[in-house]
Write a structure and sequence with these properties.
This protein is an alpha/beta fold and 389 residues long. It has ten helices and 16 strands. The protein is 34% helix and 24% strand. The chain has an eight-stranded mixed beta sheet with strand order 1-2-4-3-5-16-6-15, sandwiched between helices. The protein is elongated, with a radius of gyration of 23 Å. It starts with a helix and ends with a helix.
Length: 389
Protein backbone atom coordinates (compact mmCIF):
# COMPACT_ATOMS: atom_id res chain seq x y z
CA UNK A 1 0.00 0.00 0.00
CA UNK A 2 0.97 3.65 -0.17
CA UNK A 3 2.99 5.13 2.64
CA UNK A 4 0.98 7.38 4.93
CA UNK A 5 2.85 10.45 3.63
CA UNK A 6 1.83 9.73 0.06
CA UNK A 7 -1.72 9.01 1.15
CA UNK A 8 -1.81 12.59 2.45
CA UNK A 9 -0.39 13.85 -0.84
CA UNK A 10 -3.13 12.01 -2.74
CA UNK A 11 -5.71 13.73 -0.55
CA UNK A 12 -4.15 17.07 -1.45
CA UNK A 13 -4.34 16.22 -5.17
CA UNK A 14 -8.03 15.39 -4.80
CA UNK A 15 -8.80 18.52 -2.81
CA UNK A 16 -7.02 20.76 -5.32
CA UNK A 17 -8.95 19.25 -8.22
CA UNK A 18 -12.18 19.48 -6.22
CA UNK A 19 -11.57 23.16 -5.49
CA UNK A 20 -11.08 24.08 -9.15
CA UNK A 21 -13.75 22.13 -11.09
CA UNK A 22 -14.43 22.63 -14.79
CA UNK A 23 -17.42 21.69 -16.92
CA UNK A 24 -17.39 19.21 -19.80
CA UNK A 25 -15.26 20.28 -22.77
CA UNK A 26 -13.76 23.10 -20.65
CA UNK A 27 -11.22 21.08 -18.62
CA UNK A 28 -8.22 23.21 -19.72
CA UNK A 29 -6.81 24.07 -16.28
CA UNK A 30 -7.43 20.52 -15.01
CA UNK A 31 -5.58 19.05 -18.01
CA UNK A 32 -2.58 21.32 -17.45
CA UNK A 33 -2.53 20.41 -13.76
CA UNK A 34 -2.49 16.72 -14.69
CA UNK A 35 0.36 17.25 -17.18
CA UNK A 36 2.43 19.16 -14.63
CA UNK A 37 1.82 16.54 -11.95
CA UNK A 38 2.84 13.71 -14.28
CA UNK A 39 5.95 15.67 -15.28
CA UNK A 40 6.94 15.91 -11.61
CA UNK A 41 6.77 12.08 -11.53
CA UNK A 42 9.02 11.82 -14.58
CA UNK A 43 6.15 10.92 -16.92
CA UNK A 44 5.73 12.78 -20.21
CA UNK A 45 2.22 13.40 -21.51
CA UNK A 46 0.34 14.96 -24.39
CA UNK A 47 -2.88 16.92 -24.77
CA UNK A 48 -5.75 15.88 -27.07
CA UNK A 49 -9.32 17.00 -27.83
CA UNK A 50 -8.68 20.73 -27.89
CA UNK A 51 -6.32 20.46 -24.87
CA UNK A 52 -8.93 18.94 -22.56
CA UNK A 53 -7.74 15.31 -22.63
CA UNK A 54 -4.39 13.99 -21.37
CA UNK A 55 -2.72 10.73 -22.31
CA UNK A 56 0.61 9.40 -21.08
CA UNK A 57 2.58 6.15 -21.32
CA UNK A 58 4.54 4.26 -18.70
CA UNK A 59 6.76 1.52 -20.09
CA UNK A 60 7.96 -1.37 -17.97
CA UNK A 61 10.35 -4.12 -18.99
CA UNK A 62 9.62 -5.64 -22.41
CA UNK A 63 7.11 -2.84 -23.20
CA UNK A 64 5.69 -4.56 -26.31
CA UNK A 65 4.56 -7.61 -24.32
CA UNK A 66 1.06 -6.21 -23.67
CA UNK A 67 -0.69 -2.90 -23.00
CA UNK A 68 -3.25 -1.96 -20.36
CA UNK A 69 -5.10 1.38 -20.38
CA UNK A 70 -6.23 3.09 -17.17
CA UNK A 71 -8.92 5.76 -17.50
CA UNK A 72 -10.15 8.55 -15.23
CA UNK A 73 -12.79 11.14 -16.12
CA UNK A 74 -12.05 14.77 -15.24
CA UNK A 75 -15.16 16.94 -15.72
CA UNK A 76 -17.48 18.41 -13.10
CA UNK A 77 -21.20 19.22 -13.00
CA UNK A 78 -23.20 22.49 -13.20
CA UNK A 79 -24.12 22.39 -9.49
CA UNK A 80 -23.57 25.06 -6.83
CA UNK A 81 -21.73 23.34 -3.98
CA UNK A 82 -23.13 23.58 -0.45
CA UNK A 83 -20.84 23.05 2.53
CA UNK A 84 -18.07 24.56 4.59
CA UNK A 85 -15.05 22.40 3.77
CA UNK A 86 -11.67 24.02 3.26
CA UNK A 87 -11.65 22.74 -0.34
CA UNK A 88 -15.14 23.84 -1.44
CA UNK A 89 -15.41 24.79 -5.12
CA UNK A 90 -14.22 28.32 -5.93
CA UNK A 91 -15.89 28.21 -9.35
CA UNK A 92 -19.46 29.40 -8.88
CA UNK A 93 -22.11 26.99 -10.07
CA UNK A 94 -19.61 24.18 -10.80
CA UNK A 95 -18.89 21.22 -8.55
CA UNK A 96 -17.28 17.79 -8.52
CA UNK A 97 -20.47 16.08 -7.38
CA UNK A 98 -19.80 12.73 -9.07
CA UNK A 99 -16.34 11.86 -7.79
CA UNK A 100 -14.33 12.64 -10.91
CA UNK A 101 -11.87 14.53 -8.69
CA UNK A 102 -11.33 11.24 -6.82
CA UNK A 103 -10.90 9.29 -10.06
CA UNK A 104 -8.31 11.75 -11.37
CA UNK A 105 -6.33 12.01 -8.13
CA UNK A 106 -6.32 8.24 -7.72
CA UNK A 107 -5.06 7.66 -11.25
CA UNK A 108 -2.30 10.24 -10.75
CA UNK A 109 -1.25 8.40 -7.60
CA UNK A 110 -1.41 5.06 -9.43
CA UNK A 111 0.83 6.54 -12.12
CA UNK A 112 3.37 7.53 -9.47
CA UNK A 113 3.42 3.97 -8.09
CA UNK A 114 3.70 2.35 -11.52
CA UNK A 115 6.48 4.72 -12.55
CA UNK A 116 8.44 3.95 -9.36
CA UNK A 117 8.03 0.19 -9.91
CA UNK A 118 8.46 0.06 -13.71
CA UNK A 119 11.59 -2.10 -13.46
CA UNK A 120 9.51 -4.78 -11.71
CA UNK A 121 6.77 -5.36 -14.30
CA UNK A 122 6.54 -6.08 -18.03
CA UNK A 123 4.44 -4.34 -20.65
CA UNK A 124 3.09 -0.83 -21.13
CA UNK A 125 0.41 1.16 -19.33
CA UNK A 126 -1.49 3.93 -21.09
CA UNK A 127 -2.95 6.61 -18.84
CA UNK A 128 -6.12 8.29 -20.13
CA UNK A 129 -7.48 11.38 -18.38
CA UNK A 130 -10.73 11.80 -20.26
CA UNK A 131 -12.91 14.92 -20.43
CA UNK A 132 -16.65 15.28 -20.89
CA UNK A 133 -18.08 12.13 -19.31
CA UNK A 134 -21.14 14.10 -18.18
CA UNK A 135 -22.06 15.52 -21.59
CA UNK A 136 -23.17 13.73 -24.77
CA UNK A 137 -21.60 12.44 -26.92
CA UNK A 138 -18.94 11.89 -24.23
CA UNK A 139 -15.17 12.14 -24.24
CA UNK A 140 -14.68 8.38 -24.65
CA UNK A 141 -16.26 8.15 -28.09
CA UNK A 142 -14.44 11.33 -29.13
CA UNK A 143 -11.09 9.75 -28.22
CA UNK A 144 -12.04 6.59 -30.11
CA UNK A 145 -12.95 8.64 -33.19
CA UNK A 146 -9.68 10.56 -32.82
CA UNK A 147 -7.84 7.29 -33.46
CA UNK A 148 -6.81 6.18 -29.99
CA UNK A 149 -7.21 2.49 -30.84
CA UNK A 150 -5.41 2.81 -34.15
CA UNK A 151 -2.38 4.30 -32.43
CA UNK A 152 -2.30 2.02 -29.39
CA UNK A 153 -2.90 -1.74 -29.30
CA UNK A 154 -4.79 -1.90 -26.01
CA UNK A 155 -5.33 -5.38 -24.58
CA UNK A 156 -7.57 -4.35 -21.68
CA UNK A 157 -8.90 -1.22 -19.96
CA UNK A 158 -9.70 -0.35 -16.35
CA UNK A 159 -11.73 2.44 -14.79
CA UNK A 160 -13.00 3.11 -11.28
CA UNK A 161 -16.03 5.02 -10.00
CA UNK A 162 -16.85 6.08 -6.45
CA UNK A 163 -19.88 4.56 -4.74
CA UNK A 164 -21.32 6.14 -1.59
CA UNK A 165 -23.46 3.01 -1.16
CA UNK A 166 -20.39 0.83 -0.57
CA UNK A 167 -18.54 0.81 2.74
CA UNK A 168 -15.20 2.62 2.72
CA UNK A 169 -12.40 0.09 2.39
CA UNK A 170 -14.41 -2.12 0.05
CA UNK A 171 -14.89 -2.26 -3.71
CA UNK A 172 -17.55 -3.84 -5.94
CA UNK A 173 -17.44 -5.62 -9.30
CA UNK A 174 -19.86 -7.29 -11.70
CA UNK A 175 -19.01 -9.36 -14.74
CA UNK A 176 -20.99 -8.85 -17.95
CA UNK A 177 -23.58 -6.14 -18.50
CA UNK A 178 -23.18 -3.72 -15.61
CA UNK A 179 -24.37 -0.17 -16.31
CA UNK A 180 -27.33 0.82 -18.44
CA UNK A 181 -27.52 2.42 -21.83
CA UNK A 182 -29.00 5.89 -21.66
CA UNK A 183 -31.11 7.78 -24.17
CA UNK A 184 -32.68 11.22 -23.81
CA UNK A 185 -36.35 11.50 -24.79
CA UNK A 186 -37.79 14.85 -25.89
CA UNK A 187 -41.52 15.18 -26.72
CA UNK A 188 -43.32 18.28 -27.93
CA UNK A 189 -47.11 17.93 -27.57
CA UNK A 190 -48.76 20.46 -29.86
CA UNK A 191 -52.32 21.58 -29.25
CA UNK A 192 -54.24 24.81 -29.83
CA UNK A 193 -54.09 27.48 -27.16
CA UNK A 194 -56.97 29.58 -25.91
CA UNK A 195 -59.05 30.83 -23.00
CA UNK A 196 -59.44 28.07 -20.40
CA UNK A 197 -63.16 28.88 -19.98
CA UNK A 198 -63.93 28.45 -23.70
CA UNK A 199 -63.53 24.70 -23.92
CA UNK A 200 -64.78 24.52 -27.51
CA UNK A 201 -62.00 26.81 -28.75
CA UNK A 202 -58.82 24.98 -27.71
CA UNK A 203 -57.01 21.65 -27.89
CA UNK A 204 -55.38 21.24 -24.50
CA UNK A 205 -51.76 19.96 -24.77
CA UNK A 206 -51.55 19.79 -20.95
CA UNK A 207 -54.28 17.16 -20.90
CA UNK A 208 -52.73 15.30 -23.85
CA UNK A 209 -49.33 15.34 -22.11
CA UNK A 210 -50.75 13.91 -18.90
CA UNK A 211 -52.57 11.16 -20.81
CA UNK A 212 -49.38 10.49 -22.77
CA UNK A 213 -47.33 9.94 -19.61
CA UNK A 214 -49.86 7.46 -18.24
CA UNK A 215 -50.26 5.51 -21.48
CA UNK A 216 -46.51 5.47 -22.12
CA UNK A 217 -45.91 3.97 -18.70
CA UNK A 218 -48.47 1.25 -19.35
CA UNK A 219 -47.18 0.39 -22.84
CA UNK A 220 -43.53 0.36 -21.74
CA UNK A 221 -44.07 -1.93 -18.77
CA UNK A 222 -46.33 -4.27 -20.72
CA UNK A 223 -43.60 -4.90 -23.28
CA UNK A 224 -40.57 -4.77 -20.98
CA UNK A 225 -38.50 -8.02 -20.81
CA UNK A 226 -38.15 -9.82 -17.47
CA UNK A 227 -34.47 -10.79 -17.83
CA UNK A 228 -33.04 -7.36 -16.96
CA UNK A 229 -34.24 -4.03 -15.59
CA UNK A 230 -35.34 -1.10 -17.77
CA UNK A 231 -36.72 2.33 -16.99
CA UNK A 232 -38.55 5.10 -18.83
CA UNK A 233 -38.75 8.12 -16.54
CA UNK A 234 -39.78 11.70 -17.27
CA UNK A 235 -38.30 14.39 -15.05
CA UNK A 236 -39.38 17.59 -16.78
CA UNK A 237 -42.70 19.02 -17.99
CA UNK A 238 -42.91 22.53 -19.44
CA UNK A 239 -46.33 24.04 -20.15
CA UNK A 240 -46.24 27.82 -20.29
CA UNK A 241 -49.92 28.46 -19.63
CA UNK A 242 -51.76 30.12 -16.75
CA UNK A 243 -54.80 29.32 -14.63
CA UNK A 244 -57.03 30.63 -17.40
CA UNK A 245 -54.71 30.25 -20.40
CA UNK A 246 -54.20 27.00 -22.31
CA UNK A 247 -50.80 26.97 -24.09
CA UNK A 248 -50.09 25.84 -27.62
CA UNK A 249 -47.32 23.44 -26.56
CA UNK A 250 -46.21 21.23 -23.72
CA UNK A 251 -42.71 19.76 -23.59
CA UNK A 252 -41.77 16.48 -21.88
CA UNK A 253 -38.19 15.39 -21.21
CA UNK A 254 -37.12 12.02 -19.89
CA UNK A 255 -34.62 9.17 -19.98
CA UNK A 256 -34.72 5.61 -21.28
CA UNK A 257 -32.29 3.10 -19.76
CA UNK A 258 -31.86 -0.58 -20.46
CA UNK A 259 -29.36 -3.43 -20.94
CA UNK A 260 -30.20 -4.85 -24.36
CA UNK A 261 -29.74 -3.17 -27.75
CA UNK A 262 -32.65 -4.94 -29.46
CA UNK A 263 -35.08 -4.04 -26.67
CA UNK A 264 -33.66 -0.52 -26.71
CA UNK A 265 -34.63 -0.18 -30.38
CA UNK A 266 -38.09 -1.66 -29.70
CA UNK A 267 -38.61 0.77 -26.80
CA UNK A 268 -37.90 3.66 -29.17
CA UNK A 269 -40.67 2.39 -31.45
CA UNK A 270 -43.09 2.01 -28.52
CA UNK A 271 -42.43 5.58 -27.40
CA UNK A 272 -42.96 7.04 -30.87
CA UNK A 273 -46.03 4.93 -31.61
CA UNK A 274 -47.76 5.58 -28.29
CA UNK A 275 -47.10 9.32 -28.20
CA UNK A 276 -48.29 9.81 -31.79
CA UNK A 277 -51.43 7.75 -31.16
CA UNK A 278 -52.50 9.63 -27.99
CA UNK A 279 -51.90 13.04 -29.56
CA UNK A 280 -53.98 12.21 -32.64
CA UNK A 281 -56.80 10.73 -30.56
CA UNK A 282 -57.19 14.11 -28.86
CA UNK A 283 -56.82 16.28 -31.99
CA UNK A 284 -53.25 17.26 -31.19
CA UNK A 285 -49.89 16.53 -32.69
CA UNK A 286 -46.53 15.37 -31.41
CA UNK A 287 -42.89 15.83 -32.30
CA UNK A 288 -40.65 13.16 -30.79
CA UNK A 289 -36.87 13.23 -30.61
CA UNK A 290 -34.83 10.43 -29.01
CA UNK A 291 -31.15 11.24 -28.61
CA UNK A 292 -29.06 8.08 -28.55
CA UNK A 293 -26.70 8.27 -25.60
CA UNK A 294 -24.15 5.93 -24.08
CA UNK A 295 -24.35 2.19 -24.82
CA UNK A 296 -24.51 -0.59 -22.25
CA UNK A 297 -21.33 -0.85 -20.18
CA UNK A 298 -20.03 -4.43 -20.38
CA UNK A 299 -17.39 -5.76 -18.01
CA UNK A 300 -15.37 -8.44 -19.79
CA UNK A 301 -15.60 -11.78 -17.98
CA UNK A 302 -11.89 -12.64 -18.21
CA UNK A 303 -10.72 -9.17 -17.17
CA UNK A 304 -13.22 -9.13 -14.30
CA UNK A 305 -12.14 -12.56 -13.04
CA UNK A 306 -8.44 -11.61 -13.10
CA UNK A 307 -9.14 -8.36 -11.28
CA UNK A 308 -11.50 -9.91 -8.74
CA UNK A 309 -8.85 -12.42 -7.73
CA UNK A 310 -6.17 -9.72 -7.60
CA UNK A 311 -8.40 -7.37 -5.58
CA UNK A 312 -9.21 -10.16 -3.12
CA UNK A 313 -5.49 -10.76 -2.69
CA UNK A 314 -4.76 -7.04 -2.25
CA UNK A 315 -7.67 -6.04 -0.01
CA UNK A 316 -8.94 -9.35 1.38
CA UNK A 317 -11.84 -11.44 0.06
CA UNK A 318 -14.30 -9.80 2.46
CA UNK A 319 -13.54 -6.41 0.91
CA UNK A 320 -14.63 -7.33 -2.62
CA UNK A 321 -18.40 -7.32 -3.21
CA UNK A 322 -20.29 -8.79 -6.14
CA UNK A 323 -22.63 -6.16 -7.53
CA UNK A 324 -25.84 -6.26 -9.56
CA UNK A 325 -27.08 -4.11 -12.45
CA UNK A 326 -26.81 -0.32 -12.08
CA UNK A 327 -29.35 1.88 -13.86
CA UNK A 328 -26.86 4.75 -13.95
CA UNK A 329 -24.64 5.05 -17.01
CA UNK A 330 -21.06 6.00 -17.83
CA UNK A 331 -19.44 6.81 -21.15
CA UNK A 332 -16.65 4.33 -20.34
CA UNK A 333 -19.24 2.05 -21.97
CA UNK A 334 -17.95 3.23 -25.36
CA UNK A 335 -14.51 1.84 -24.51
CA UNK A 336 -16.06 -1.36 -23.14
CA UNK A 337 -17.74 -1.98 -26.50
CA UNK A 338 -14.34 -1.87 -28.22
CA UNK A 339 -11.79 -3.30 -25.74
CA UNK A 340 -12.03 -5.96 -22.99
CA UNK A 341 -12.76 -3.72 -20.01
CA UNK A 342 -13.73 -3.44 -16.37
CA UNK A 343 -15.27 -0.57 -14.45
CA UNK A 344 -15.39 -1.28 -10.72
CA UNK A 345 -16.87 0.71 -7.85
CA UNK A 346 -14.89 2.20 -4.96
CA UNK A 347 -16.61 2.46 -1.58
CA UNK A 348 -16.47 6.02 -0.19
CA UNK A 349 -19.26 5.77 2.39
CA UNK A 350 -19.10 8.08 5.41
CA UNK A 351 -20.71 6.27 8.32
CA UNK A 352 -23.80 8.05 9.60
CA UNK A 353 -23.91 10.53 6.69
CA UNK A 354 -26.14 10.34 3.63
CA UNK A 355 -24.15 10.84 0.43
CA UNK A 356 -25.85 11.22 -2.94
CA UNK A 357 -24.08 11.53 -6.28
CA UNK A 358 -24.99 14.67 -8.25
CA UNK A 359 -26.11 16.48 -5.09
CA UNK A 360 -24.75 19.85 -3.87
CA UNK A 361 -23.57 18.31 -0.58
CA UNK A 362 -21.73 15.31 -2.04
CA UNK A 363 -18.36 14.43 -0.50
CA UNK A 364 -16.37 11.26 0.15
CA UNK A 365 -14.66 9.40 2.95
CA UNK A 366 -11.07 10.25 2.07
CA UNK A 367 -9.80 7.10 3.77
CA UNK A 368 -10.72 5.43 0.47
CA UNK A 369 -7.69 7.15 -1.05
CA UNK A 370 -5.42 5.14 1.21
CA UNK A 371 -5.90 2.02 -0.93
CA UNK A 372 -7.52 3.08 -4.23
CA UNK A 373 -4.31 4.13 -6.09
CA UNK A 374 -2.35 1.08 -4.96
CA UNK A 375 -5.24 -1.19 -5.90
CA UNK A 376 -5.50 0.12 -9.47
CA UNK A 377 -1.72 -0.21 -9.92
CA UNK A 378 -1.89 -3.78 -8.58
CA UNK A 379 -4.80 -4.65 -10.88
CA UNK A 380 -2.96 -3.21 -13.89
CA UNK A 381 0.18 -5.24 -13.21
CA UNK A 382 -1.88 -8.41 -12.74
CA UNK A 383 -3.67 -7.80 -16.02
CA UNK A 384 -0.36 -7.26 -17.82
CA UNK A 385 0.82 -10.60 -16.49
CA UNK A 386 -2.35 -12.61 -17.17
CA UNK A 387 -4.16 -11.08 -20.13
CA UNK A 388 -3.90 -12.91 -23.45
CA UNK A 389 -3.13 -10.72 -26.44
Amino acid sequence: MLSYDYFLETIQLRRHIHQYPELSEQEFVTARFICNTLKSYGISSKLLLNDTAVIAMIEGQNPKRSMIALRADTDALPIEEEGNSTYISVNKGIMHACGHDVHTASLLASAYILQKLKDLWEGSILLIFQPSEEKFPGGAIRLIKAGLQEKYTIDAMLAMHVSPEIECGKIGMKSGKFMASTDEVYINIKGKGGHAALTHSFVNPVFIASKTLIELDKAFHAAMPDEFPSILTFGRIIGEGKTNIVPNDVFLEGTLRTFDEEWRKEAHKIIKRTVTKIAKEHNGNAIIKIANGYPVLINDENVTNICMQAASSYLGEDKVEKLSYRMTSDDFASFSQEVPSLLYRLGVQIEGKELNLHSPTFDINEKALEHSPGLMAYLAINLLTNINR
